[in-house]
Amino acid sequence: MYDAVADLPLTVESVDLKRRARQTPAFERVSTVVALRGDGTTGRGEDVTYEIEHHDDLLDADPDLGSALAGDWTFSEFSERLDEVDLWPAGQPERRDFVDYRRWGFEAAALDLALRQAGETLADRLDATHDPVRFVVSSRLPEGDTERVETLLSRSPDAELKLDPTSDWPEATFDYLRETDAVRILDLKGAYEGTDVDQAPDPDLYRRVFEGFPDAVVEDPAVTDDTRAVVEPHADRVSWDAPIHSLDDVRAQPVAPDWLNVKPSRFGTVESLFETVSWADEHGVTMYGGGQFELDAGRGQIQELAALFYTDGPNDVAPGVFNDPELPEEPPTSPLAVPSDHVGFGY
User: Alpha carbon of 103 to those of 78, 187, 191: distances in Å?
Assistant: First the structure.
């Protein structure tokens, strides 16, 4: 698959960085849009690193990336050049995944630029077609408060849900959610440490999730001595997300995957992403797309990848309005339509 884009030529003349910010129900989301320009065309990607200071430090440092990245390249040559360029002039982040997120912003911008300069879409290069994308709406429901879900379903009765259950959810929350028959994914957040969304391994929570929602996909359980007996009987519904940054990571999971949440930014490079998608397709692993609260070009790019590789999955790639503090009166409905005037990488 990667061979289809590796030899794409691109010309880079300048690099621009732009800060984006938007309030979500839980926090202020900040990202940096990477714009590569050349031959009168612009390609865009998005650095979805979560710490605001990392975005501000990058812009304050004002690195001369134009000099480092300008030139005539193939896409694979440009990717190799990124190995040599310091994308963290203010110092490396403590979290290794942030390195991948920033790298992905530049890789995505380069792929977008190369395709636009060629007048093509990613589907053209892969000899594939775009299909409408099924999407789910995600939410955390702090302390089990279902008000946001109730509002959503009153305005969009057919909406499907991806939720992040926590140990402090009361039984009434589980009862209400079961009655909706709208829950498709439950993310146990068992792979996170030192973040705002950590959820410690909890056999009682895991039991309520697996037994209470027998048809739902369950993401990222922490498989420990205490939880193994709960998780393993449901291995065919276990999906992996946060630990996955490469194909090696997929193979290293304690439960072999039947499901995989593909978040492109976690992979860092297009080559790593395509390698993993190809492997999953060949081995019958059901994929679905995931996002990182993208604010700009990144949102359309995860939607296009879903349209090419896993259109029917419970894709967490909903339009950005679902991340606003207040839900729209008339929310967009699934599936996402294929744009009629599409070119480059990303809707």
Answer: 12, 26, 22
